[in-house]
Write a structure and sequence with these properties.
The chain is of the alpha/beta class. The chain is about 25% helix and about 30% strand.
Length: about 230
């Protein structure tokens, strides 16, 4: 189940449909210098996956990175009871059934500051309620020059089903690292989005891991900048 991406980064994936469209989802696991593990956007895990994770380190922090990626937090905590749960702002109100240890906004994780993160402000999505804030925390792993995004950009390609390829060609996110037109329409505070993406682009990353779509191994910064031109030059 686990796939090694770099020296201290692994991912695991599972099928996921959103509005009937197969988009998949991905969690990222980062091993710190002290062999503790940070899990971003956990997915459903079975005994085999739990054993694989325990083989690479001790899960210390479980992170729900935005207001939508929280479905498997409780189950993951049950599998790793000694871990702390960190969450994006506002999720403590949405999921009052979960005992969060920390609400994060901006900071670093690890004795050597291996992970840097901050709140991507101004981003909204279209859902059944209309437009809703995403409140996504984005992450940068310094050692591997890797950016980790959840719903602030997608990157679908030919490995996805035909209907997914067709729809994302129309609304955005097919072979491009960008939000879809739905998110662009939902966003009203473009200056905040512009400030956030400029902060992201200040990080020295090459690889981009997304929750929905395929991982970009090269030219990640260049492609993300191009995918956010609509905000950067508005």
């Amino acid at each position: 189940m686990l796939k090694k991406v770099d020296k201290n980064i692994w991912v695991a994936e599972q099928n996921l449909k959103y509005w009937g469209l197969e988009v998949g989802t991905r969690m990222t696991i980062i091993r710190l210098d002290n062999d503790e593990l940070v899990v971003i956007s956990p997915i459903k895990v079975d005994n085999e996956a739990v054993n694989q994770i325990n083989e690479i380190g001790q899960v210390r922090i479980i992170i729900a990175p935005n207001l939508y990626h929280h479905l498997f937090i409780s189950d993951f905590k049950t599998a790793f009871p000694d871990a702390q749960i960190f969450a994006a702002p506002g999720l403590d109100s949405k999921r009052q059934d979960i005992d969060f240890d920390k609400i994060i906004n901006q900071g670093r994780i690890g004795t050597k500051d291996e992970i840097e993160y901050f709140l991507f402000e101004g981003f909204k999505i279209l859902d059944l309620k209309g437009t809703s804030p995403l409140n996504e925390i984005v992450f940068f792993h310094r050692e591997s020059h890797t950016l980790i995004l959840t719903d602030t950009a997608f990157h679908f390609d030919e490995t996805f089903p035909f209907i997914t390829k067709l729809i994302t060609r129309l609304i955005g996110g097919y072979k491009k690292l960008e939000p879809s037109i739905l998110e662009k329409l939902a966003i009203g505070e473009r200056q905040k989005v512009k400030n956030s993406i400029q902060t992201v682009l200040n990080w020295n990353f090459e690889r981009v891991i997304v929750a929905h779509g395929s991982i970009l191994e090269n030219q990640g910064k260049e492609k993300l900048k191009k995918g956010y031109n609509w905000a950067l030059f508005s």
